[in-house]
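Fig. S4 source data, part A: sequence.
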Amino acid sequence: MEATLPEPPEAARKVFGERLGDAVRYAELLADIGVGRGLIGPREVPRLWERHLLNCAVLSEVVPEEVTVCDVGSGAGLPGIPLALVRPDLRITLLEPLLRRINFLGEVVELLGLEDQVSLVRGRAEEVLPTFTPVHVVTARAVAPLDRLAGWGVPLLRPYGEMLAIKGETAEEELKAARGALAKLGMVRSSVLHAGVGVVDPPSTVVRVEVGESPGGVRFAAKRAKAARRGGSSRRPRR
């Protein structure tokens, strides 16, 4: 028996506002072809709103205004697509290596009319680094342990940028264990935040990693300098 997508809760109306209709269309895609293509499990359909869309959309509370964002390992578009719907001031790149996921994301972006706001880049972070235009903010959700995730995401940042990773209940312990690795990547500050308090239950737990003038540390600074000399850093992410 197929799981049924529930009606959007009142919190969704509050969070998505005038873009609620687009959020519903996205949820319907996830529940239909998203499940059919193996991008999301069928058991997740009844809790798509609370556990996935709203959990990601409230990340908007901690993202600065009018910045560039890269959603690393975007998968089915979480958190990048909900973030784009809530925050039209952001310019978002969805970075995803798997073709079937990129194809799905392309369909979503076109259907929701997000072409001017959202770009797609197929590849792994370490592969696209030489030609990638650094961003202010890197986001991620359920991609990898924090130390490994930071190794992929932090080098994509501009100087003084930040990585925002949606994590679970063990976020504090994970951050503590990863601090040594994060310091080598140029971290200057880190914290655990809670987004969506009073909106989603439980609120989203977000690890913020802020970097200084050398995101990724000395090794990646050298790589970026080499790419800049080749003119690579001026290239735009491919659509």
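Fig. S4 source data, part B ends here. Confidence is low (pLDDT under 50) at residues 232-239.
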